[in-house]
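Sharing a chain and its predicted structure for anyone who wants a worked example. Both blocks are below, sequence first, tokens second.
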Amino acid sequence: MNVLISVSDKSNLDKIAKFLDNLNCNIISTGGTYNYLKNIKVKNLSKVSEITNSPEILDGRVKTLHPFIHGGILAKRNNKKHLDEINNMSGLFIDMVIVNLYPFEEALLNSKNTHEQIIEMIDIGGPTLIRAAAKNYESVAVLVNPNKYELITKITSSSKKQNVSIQDLCSTEERKILAAEAFEHVSNYDSIIHSYLNPKKVGNFSLNGNLIKKLRYGENPHQEANLYKSANLGSGIINGIQIHGKEMSFNNIIDGNTAWQIVNDFNDNSCVIVKHANPCGLASGSFQSDAFQKAFDGDQVSAYGGIVAFNNIVEENTVKKMKGIFFELIIAPDFSESALLRLQKRKDLRIISMKDTKYLNPEFELKTFAGGYIIQDTDTKEDFESDWKIVTKTKPSKNKFTDLKFAWKAIKHVKSNGILLVKNKSIIGLGTGQPNRINSIEIAAKVAGGKSNNSVLASDAFFPFADNVQLAHSIGVKSIIQPGGSIRDLEVVDLANKLNISMIFTGIRHFKH
């Protein structure tokens, strides 16, 4: 067997290289990979230039682009004409290609790199080798993922032969699966380059990513799900490190990312508790432990089994306040040593550290439906208080205005029709996902109980009727913030004036379906 190896990621390379060398395979390589293999004492090792009789040119930009290499990969083994052409030019048949590409994504994420340095990380020869081998998968095995080397190195009776063929090491069906993974690898690579070279716009969004793992199941046990990572989609909990607990589930990932997104919207010491992608508890405070306590007190029933996120290093005092409360997952920039020791005593608790990893919204969102999909800009529009209008005679007090700002920042993370009741920079009542706004206010009021008196209310869209204001008044709301824009705005404002409720129009809507 002849094996071509050229990799940037050298994970597990020593294992597969020594395995193939022990089977007397001829290994062909170039550049840094050749030097690595030489250093680990691979015996049957040749340079690409020794096979092609052509030197590398253009500072290594052209190494493997040669008929001897690509003819040896692409030749159909059941086609006599192909076999004769390779033999007549004294070529060789390449049975396995082990290639992964220049680290373009890593270069892109390194702020120290210049545009020229990033461009140099665009691989040319690698994708060509991968595509050629994947096209001819019936005769050639292609490996782009170091974690898949074990498919080849598995111990079988056939692999103990001294003259093995590719058929001995993996079946045609296995080679087909490897070929599909290879095309996916190249497609994702090209999409990242495409996004870098083109101006950011909706039309340039591409749904590609690197497969991280297969999840136990999806949203429900009967649904299959795979987890992918993509540099085109910002930065979230997938970029963090799980330091404790069981494997993350579909719902853990979705809710956890939502929690991390929400808490990163706030500058003060803040804590959010998320349940089913909604913030059932959210608060800011002078001390982290106070922020947690207020968030938990917002809806203790819903908080059970929820996901908690902090925007600062978790302290021991905060963890002490969590005693006896079951949470699925805790996310934070980091954890003090004493806090982590306490948390790690909980076997069922998952812990993710986001050290040195900020939340970064994706540029675009994808919504699929039967027959097609919609790509839209992510709702990251910044709201400016200077654009807000106090539309009532009554003006909000300084404390109420602080709560209104908090509520408006929070409401964009609530599913429509969304209503929030807030007091002292803490959610005390949440109404979400209802077909009308009255229902959402009633639910928020029920959650808040007696705490709703003297609170502020945020609505993610305008009030279509004045009855919303009447209901808000009946539960003790003193100030309201909403987008405005209803044909009945005048009626709504008139009633607010009669009821001595201050009201702000923001001029912007934040629906979240």
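Comments welcome. The radius of gyration is 30 Å.
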